[in-house]
Amino acid sequence: MPETARAPVARRRGTFRALSSRPFRRYFAGQVASASGTFLQQTAIGWLVLQLTHSPSTLGLVLAVGGIPSLLFGPWGGALADRIDLRRLLLATQALYAVCAGLLWVLAASGHASVPAIVAINVVSGVVSIADSPARQAFVSALVPPDDLASAVSLNGVVVNGARVIGPALAGALIVTVGTTPCFAVNAVSYLAVIVALLFVRPIATARRPAGGSGVRAALTYARGREQLWVPLAMMALVGLLAFNFAVILPVLADRTLHGGGGTYSLLSTMLSIGSVAGSLAVGLVRHPRRRYLVAAATAFGVGLASTAVAPGTLAACVTLLVTGVAAFCFVTLCSTTLQLHSSPAFRGRVMALWVFVYLGTTPIGSALTGWIVSAGGPRAALWVGAGACLVAALIAARVRTPPHPDDAYTDLAR
């Protein structure tokens, strides 16, 4: 039987109100452990590959191959998420992730870890993520009432962005003291936390089976007819392609523009991460995302990037990146919440697969474009291009006046 969330007498308020739902609390606790383990392993893989090859280009290739399956087949993962019980699907994907991490642990411990083996494991993990990413996005909406969805999505963002700081820091401590191998063991064990949580979670809502077609084409048709879906998807496609390329921009900004070293790069990345956590928490205060909030967040993101482009020194860049991180992840969380609130349960998995595709699937193309811009005009030019993309996205959203679809239960939230 579906588990019910605690029904309050008064409407809950605040960023953490989603935690009043018992199913979400359990799932959230598992995600805290698992997300940190994931970023811990990514850091350890980078160090291990560099030790094995002493080649930054090989390291870049190894890290990139994991995203190729999602780039090629990501939207089809949503069709699977819409046809299979989400909890069971997530139990399967988390178990497969644990097996991949365990295999990497065994290979590293036995001295048989090689670049081809690491590439193969990364590709398998990438294939698993095709179904896992949209399923996780859609599953959150089944764990809380609609009024608490923004809080749930923001808390998930806090987990991921916090893990981007905690995971690499823990990896650094382990690598220095005991080496890379224990990092893979820790990640493998961390998936047990999610699996145990999922075993005890019972959604408060059950998704309907697909209606009107079960493929990607049906999802595209569905999203195209609803402005509350295609507008945030279009915004994220543009912004994700040209503005979310900090991994390419920040190292060059720290080294060549600010004339710093690894410490400067680490400081800039940390300030951006702190801002992202704050931005994710801020969206939790919003009960229902409105179009004007998306416009404001995209505009603020563009202003933050432009401010970073003209920052005269490291201290100023730290301040502007902190603000940029807040605005960027307010924008991301608002987009995700909007899509989940305005999509039917029968299509939610496919809609969120489209979201993952435009958010993460554009990264390889965007990174290549940004790399060319950085090479031609420097990191400040790339920041200006990203700022322009954000402002164009905000302008598009502000000027769209297509009537919302009559089937949308939240048409009163359009503006």
From TrEMBL:
Pfam families: MFS_3
InterPro entries named among the record's database cross-references: MFS_dom, MFS_trans_sf, TM_effector
Localization annotation: Cell membrane
Keyword annotations of the record: Cell membrane, Membrane, Transmembrane, Transmembrane helix, Transport
Domain of life of the source: Bacteria
Membrane topology designation: Multi-pass membrane protein
Residue ranges annotated for the Major facilitator superfamily (MFS) profile domain, each copy included: 1-405
Transmembrane regions: 27-50, 56-77, 113-131, 184-201, 229-253, 265-286, 293-313, 319-339, 351-375, 381-398
Metal-binding found in the keyword field: no
UniProt main location, coarse: membrane
Protein name: MFS transporter
